[in-house]
């Protein structure tokens, strides 16, 4: 079994057509197969206005592909016995002891109920905590987040600890463990890592994940001397064309007050491919072990209530991602039934993506890891989730 480069070059032609049409700024893409780099491609611009091309060392904002890193960090502490998946979050962030659940009413006067059980670590990892994001704009609680300054980011100057205290005071969407919703769970998990380890999140990541793996270009801020390597950020306009967005483009250029375990990291194709290879290798890559293989296997099982898929228990906020046949583990979406997804994939495949159109997945059945990086919001503007998998799967031959 091999990855046929000539067949996978069809993907390059597809992506180049999007660049030529002004719908994609540029891209970096790689496939690792059986521990070896099987394919790598780059195209378009990291900065269209300056005419700077995408290069192998281009740095991207990961946005929500930060979440799997935070999940791995938390499981490092679980393996060491510092944390337990059953631990109440309030043990580390006391404000969550008084959390309430939304029942009815407007954002200004919500009626709430008490918790029937506490938010636990596994709820944060599986996004079944009841926490949300303001940018969903689909529920009164989303409006509460937005009104308080938590839409796409956090209020200026607030630390992660201060943000967590605020989130604990907002109603939850549902009782923990009963449904799935995308929200600030990984940010709260990052704060748990800080409290449990006694280290700031950036230091813990550097010491326990990035340093051992040799991920030299991954962190919360780009060094000033490397700033020219950071890709510009683009958003899609009403006409389908893309425009530079310097407001979002400041992310990664200054040290953040809030170290976001949900969306704060920057990285390169090579660095994140190494992270993906770590997962495919059962927690080990090139002789460096970060997690045990059984921990990785446990993380990448479906942890949704009743073994359901996202279509049954999830809040449909990601139209570009298949919901039928897809579950969620401890930090990753997991394919339960590839036929139900109607996207070429393998049962047991897992990974995640971001609002900035960055995507990665690990396919244990094919011994394959794929990483795609760009800087385009929203991620629903292009059918990248399905097309990337189509092109990769048709290239696996032999």
UniProtKB/TrEMBL annotation:
* Protein name stated in the entry: Serine hydrolase domain-containing protein
In terms of Gene3D superfamilies, this protein maps to: DD-peptidase/beta-lactamase superfamily
Q: Which organism is it from?
A: Phytohabitans kaempferiae
> Which InterPro entries does the record match to this protein?
Beta-lactam-related, Beta-lactam/transpept-like, Diverse_Enzym_Activities
Q: What Pfam families does its record include?
A: Beta-lactamase
Question: Which controlled-vocabulary keywords does the entry list?
Answer: Hydrolase
Q: Give its E.C. classification number.
A: 3.-.-.-
Q: Where is the Beta-lactamase-related domain?
A: 11-380
Task: Name the Gene Ontology molecular function terms of this record.
Answer: hydrolase activity
């Amino acid at each position: 079994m091999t990855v046929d480069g000539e067949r996978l070059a069809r993907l390059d032609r597809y992506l180049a057509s999007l660049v030529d049409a002004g719908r994609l700024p540029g891209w970096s893409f790689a496939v690792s197969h059986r521990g070896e780099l099987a394919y790598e491609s780059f195209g378009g611009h990291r900065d269209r206005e300056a005419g700077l091309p995408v290069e192998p060392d281009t740095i991207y904002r990961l946005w929500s592909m930060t979440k799997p890193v935070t999940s791995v960090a938390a499981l490092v502490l679980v393996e060491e016995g510092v944390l337990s998946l059953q631990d109440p979050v309030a043990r580390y962030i006391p404000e969550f002891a008084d959390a309430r659940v939304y029942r009815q009413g407007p954002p200004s006067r919500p009626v709430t109920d008490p918790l029937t059980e506490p938010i636990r670590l596994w709820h944060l990892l599986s996004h079944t905590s009841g926490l949300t994001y303001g940018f969903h704009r689909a529920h009164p609680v989303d409006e509460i987040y937005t009104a308080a300054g938590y839409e796409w980011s956090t209020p200026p100057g607030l630390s992660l600890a201060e943000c967590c205290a605020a989130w604990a005071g907002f109603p939850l969407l549902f009782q923990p463990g009963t449904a799935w919703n995308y929200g600030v769970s990984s940010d709260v998990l990052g704060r748990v890592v800080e409290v449990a380890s006694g280290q700031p999140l950036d230091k813990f990541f550097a010491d326990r994940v990035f340093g051992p793996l040799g991920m030299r270009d991954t962190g919360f801020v780009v060094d000033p001397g490397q700033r020219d390597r950071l890709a510009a950020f683009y958003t899609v306009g009403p006409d389908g064309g893309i425009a530079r967005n310097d407001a979002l483009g400041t992310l990664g250029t200054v040290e953040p007050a809030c170290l976001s375990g949900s969306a704060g990291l920057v990285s390169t194709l090579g660095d994140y491919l190494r992270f993906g290879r770590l997962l495919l290798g059962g927690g080990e890559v090139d002789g460096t072990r970060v997690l045990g293989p059984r921990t990785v296997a446990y993380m990448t099982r479906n942890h949704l209530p009743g073994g359901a898929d996202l279509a049954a228990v999830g809040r449909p906020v990601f139209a570009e991602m298949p919901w039928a046949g897809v579950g969620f583990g401890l930090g990753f979406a997991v394919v339960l039934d590839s036929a139900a997804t109607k996207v070429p994939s393998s049962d047991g495949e897992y990974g995640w993506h971001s609002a900035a159109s960055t995507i990665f997945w690990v396919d244990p059945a094919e011994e394959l890891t794929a990483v795609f990086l760009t800087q385009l919001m929203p991620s629903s503007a292009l059918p990248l989730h399905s097309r990337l998998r189509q092109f990769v799967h048709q290239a696996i031959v032999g």
